[in-house]
Amino acid sequence: MVETKRQEPRLAAAGDEKRFLGDLEKYCRIVTELGGVDVRVVTPQDIVQNIRPRLTCIFGHCPSLGTSYFCPPNWDFPWEYQKEILNSYQHIIIYRIPYEKENLACYTGPAGSNQLEGYIYQYKSHWTDEEVQYWLDMMKKYTAPMSAVRAKNIGRIIESTARKDGYYFAFTGFQGSCSQHKCTKFGAHCIFITGGICRFPCEVRPDGAGAMNIDFMRTNARMGWKSWTGGWSALPEYFPEDVEEYLYHTAIVYID
Length: 256
Ligand code: SF4
Known about the structure:
Elements: H1 17-33, E1 37-42, H2 53-58, H3 79-87, E2 91-98, H4 115-123, H5 129-142, H6 148-164, E3 171-173, H7 178-181, H8 191-195, H9 216-223, E4 248-255
Antiparallel strand pairs: 1-2, 2-4, 3-4
Bound molecules: iron/sulfur cluster.
């Protein structure tokens, strides 16, 4: 029988800077191997928080509003907490996931992240037959494979690898609602809100923009990356001609 020695947790600030830097390099390498690009290690000062994303969650009305426990208004971390959490980390891995131009509809528009199917199911009893048909046609026209999930999976892999390495507060910041990317097949119906139990307790994290008020557009600009407004009503055909320059999903993982 093979004996395994239990590893003591390693702390980032425990004086072994060389090991810590080696671990950061390892995480960046994993991101790249899994398809991320432009990976770099930054500090909280490089990440822009802005209280105003909450306005765009509520007015303009993100279809995820109220549909997930981890989106507003259910997840309502005070602004001061959000800032303190971000600033409590000293290192943040930020990277981008490229989208294919052919799959622009998974980046923006009503079918982005496969959310439309769940929302039609959820809202159809409040819509007329014509409205349901309109959205079914939109879904047919715009549904594309989703690469946002890839960004989330990479983040989770980095987070769990770092936690096993002893950085037990490693945390991945998501972009997007779990009602879209996890519970769409259940009609985007969140049983955490209604029953207090999540279907995917180990996999979900609060939305980076809606729950942590990360301003990804300004953060991208700070990194020197171009970005364009995506979303429910920003149809793929509204994008600029040089669309490739904008087709990236930004993701962050907090490590300490
Ligand atoms: S049940 Fe689904 S929608 Fe609700 S918090 Fe869990 S993953 Fe998110």
